[in-house]
Design a protein that fits this description.
The structure is a single chain. The protein has one domain (5-232): NAD(P)-binding Rossmann-like Domain (Rossmann fold, 3-Layer(aba) Sandwich), CATH 3.40.50. The protein is 44% helix and 16% strand. It has helices at residues 5-17, 31-40, 57-71, 89-111, 138-161, 191-196, 203-216; strands at residues 21-26, 45-50, 76-79, 120-125, 163-170, 222-226, 229-232. The strands form two sheets. Strands 3-4-5-6-7 form a five-stranded mixed beta sheet, sandwiched between helices. It is globular, with a radius of gyration of 17 Å.
């Protein structure tokens, strides 16, 4: 999800840093956002493909085949799709966890050094709720904990696969995600308002630190991006 909230601001930061290509996969096309990204740095080729992370693994592999054929080399995958709505249990798990696992699994076809691939790097956008749950949204929090755990395993597998991984864990950030959302079984109808009472950071602050974490490219890092800071977290579970 490179075109909404934290994703768009991070995409802007990445384009400023000047990679050769930025490929954005998102469910909804946003031509204005794509045009804005292209205008920031004309040296960067920005392309968009429609993609829904809940599609079957085979479909993801098909899309990646198209992208790899066009670009030849892809260095970094950012898994950033996410929803926050504990009324939609299956969808939350499908987008926040299963989709991320499938996209990661699909790219291994192209990157895995056991298949002669060049390796690569995966940045998974998790959340501080992955190690410190917002208990009123236990489904969301657990889906994020699953991704933190999955990412830590990927990092330990890097000597075998040649693919490194790290997690980016934003704290409460002013995005549309947190304006209004449902708690599990409505245990706390005011959960969004209560969350709003906590200190927050802007998507711009979060994105700046996100780009720093990408530049660090540190296998196994669990980065906490909160209140405009970037901190490494030691988390064992």
């Amino acid at each position: 999800a490179g075109l909404g909230g934290i994703g768009l601001d991070t995409s802007k930061g990445i384009v400023k840093a000047g990679p050769k290509n930025l490929v954005i996969l998102d469910r909804i096309e946003n031509p204005a956002a794509i045009a804005e990204l292209k205008a920031i740095n004309p040296k960067v080729t920005v392309t968009f493909y429609p993609y829904d992370v809940t599609v079957p693994l085979a479909e993801t592999k098909k899309l990646l085949t198209t992208i790899f054929a066009k670009l030849k080399t892809v260095d970094l995958l950012i898994n950033g799709a996410g929803i926050l709505n504990d009324h939609q249990i299956e969808l939350t798990i499908a987008i926040n966890f299963t989709g991320l696992v499938n996209t990661t699994t699909a790219i291994m076809d192209f990157w895995d050094k056991r298949k002669g691939g060049p390796g690569g790097a995966i940045a998974n956008i998790c959340s501080v709720t992955g190690f410190n749950a917002i208990y009123q949204v236990p489904v969301y929090s657990a889906s994020k904990a699953a991704v933190v755990s999955f990412t830590s395993s990927l990092a330990k597998l890097a000597p075998i696969t040649g693919v490194i991984a790290y997690s980016i864990n934003p704290g409460i950030t002013k995005t549309t995600l947190v304006h209004k959302f449902n708690s599990w079984l409505d245990v706390e109808p005011r959960v969004a308002e209560l969350l709003d009472e906590h200190p927050t950071q802007t998507t711009t602050q979060c994105a700046q630190k996100f780009v720093k974490a990408i530049e660090a490219n540190q296998n196994g890092a669990i980065w906490k991006l909160d209140l405009g800071r970037l901190d490494a977290v030691n988390w064992t579970k």
